[in-house]
Amino acid sequence: MKQSFIKLGEGLTDLFEFNTLIEYNFKRIDHIVYFHAATFEKKPSSVAIVMHPTSENHFQAMYIMVNALNYPYPNSNKKFEMINEQAKLYNIDIKEVDVQPSETFHDIDLYFNYLISVLRLQRWIPPLQ
Fold first, then answer.
1. What are the backbone angles phi and psi of residue 40, rounded to the nearest 5°?
2. What Pfam families does UniProt report for this protein, alphabetically (predicted)?
3. Please, what are the domains in the chain?
4. pLDDT of 74-100, one tens digit each?
């Protein structure tokens, strides 16, 4: 099964698209994952919607906003709250994990491979088949 990220932007319009994806696809969503780079100077956080695999397990999509919000602890932020409110509205499980920042990777695809590995290690997505 192919598992890949579909990258959205970092701005407010992308946040509205992200929330709309939740609204219209909530039955297909497995969970929402925050990837925090809390040890990095800027403390960016990325957020992804992890979909259930397609029928017959050919593909699993994950929509991601890379470095789209600031680390929400101890002070929360509006983007973090908006996503959490939307997830709560549709009873979607939220998970969080600390990761390396995207800036430490030479290429965004390498970063995505790293995140997929993290998700597999956490058993939040199925193993490679």
1. -80, 150
2. DUF7147
3. 2-121 (3.40.1530)
4. 999 999 999 999 999 999 999 999 999
